[in-house]
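Homework help board

Subject: predicted structure for assignment chain

Our instructor gave us this sequence and asked us to write out the predicted structure in token form, then describe one feature. I got the tokens but I'm not sure how to describe them. Can anyone check?
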Amino acid sequence: MTKHRLSASVDSALLAAAERAVAEGFAESVSAWVNAAMRRQVEHERRMRSLADFVAVYESRHGPITDD
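My token output:
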């Protein structure tokens, strides 16, 4: 897969977590850690879109989902 360099500003606590993950052997590099986090975010957003689509279809057939 092609890689692209990017520049991003992140919270210092997140950078520290990435560096700790590398130091503890949980990631090869900060870039690998960020890449994995971005991959999880993409998958999360895909699942949320799928869930929203499912709910929309369900409600169009059965009416709104209520607290009851």
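Reply (TA_rk): Your tokens look well-formed. For the description, you could write something like this. The chain has a mean pLDDT of 97. That's the kind of observation they're looking for.
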